[in-house]
Amino acid sequence: MLTALHWGRGDVQVAGERLRGADLVAAVNAVAHTVAGHERVAVVAHRQLQTVVAVAGVLAAGGCAVPVNPAAGEAERGHVLADSGASLLLDGSAIDLAARGAGVASGDVDAESPGLLVYTSGTTGPPKGVLLSRRAMAACLDGLSDVWQWSQEDVLAHALPLFHVHGLVLGTLGPLRFGSRLVLTDGFGPVEGATMYFGVPTMWSRTDVESLRAMRGARLLVSGSAALPAPVFERVRELTGQRLVERYGLTESLIVTAASVDSDRGAGSVGRPLPGVGLRIADPDDEGMGEVQLSGPTLFSGYLNRPDATTAALTDDGWLRSGDLGRYDDEHGLRLLGRLATDLVKTGGFKVGAGEVEDALLGHPAVAEAAVTGEPDDDLGERIVAWVVRADAVTAGELIDHVAAQLAPHKRPRDVRFVEALPRNAMGKIQKSLLSATNDV
Question: Are 163 and 68 in contact (CB under 8 A)?
């Protein structure tokens, strides 16, 4: 159960504010007294020390925290508050860090009781509330502790938002569980003494040369939340001397695979399953590509108020349908090839994963960013379309030939569209549903 949060050894710093040891314990207890008796408490999750204390206080009181994106519009926030049934709303920025309280007697909290209710991005309708039990979060973090050798001696630095599981579960509850120091920064960059960095691919790709070189002293550089392009992997390796560690998971599954700290890591692999996690590739094609399906202790308890959606997300034998395309082998681990709904292109009788074509495009030195989609085609059924941000002069024909030389000819783009930028969400994931509205340049 997620009760072994080491407040007494905790040390959290955000901007110029810092709480540690007894002061952190007392501040968390003060919040716990405020929220005691509330089943669900919404927390406006600014990237501030107050948010860390607020969420920790809700957990310490035995409640369920509902993180709210501080940039959410009125309609989105209203939906989250109404759907969650939160009986109290805390604005993280209003938490008094100087407040002090004694421990709260929360009773024996069931390990299966929800500790977090995290809302999905809502790309296919109103956001759904994902119930994450204390047991699931503990299993995820303890599994990562095993493969990453995470201990109280570590110092974790990141600039991730605190309303997603990456920044909140891994990046906040992880350090609190293991008693390691946490430094939250406004912008992604080097922190003196940091041994671990968590970032998303766009952070790693946009970090300047000197900042990356300053991270050479860290023992673990982690990338997640979106696919990591091979050129970014190589750039970070050259400048830091470190091979980025990739991991994979969903809000509904938390982290299920990760490259280990002592593995021979390569670009494109998101590692092997954590202890207790089941992973299978459903209905694989001749090249081993199919949907990634998951089981084990890190999985969610269901969608709040949506038994229909919960049932649809699971197979008849209880495995979670990830919606992600992938291949798996024991030697290389899991390789992701895109989303089943948006990244599986059926062209000329073949199935092509967009991620594989994107990796080939990114291997061309003139390509800064790339995304691949499928569009209706009278002859092929669907044709492969590449959306490319140029780093240097290159023609569409050159890129098509480049992909055809790297992959099977049927995987080459039939259309290349040059754009100034690719639309991304707050976690750096490309929003392919917006690409059809993007103007060519």
Answer: yes
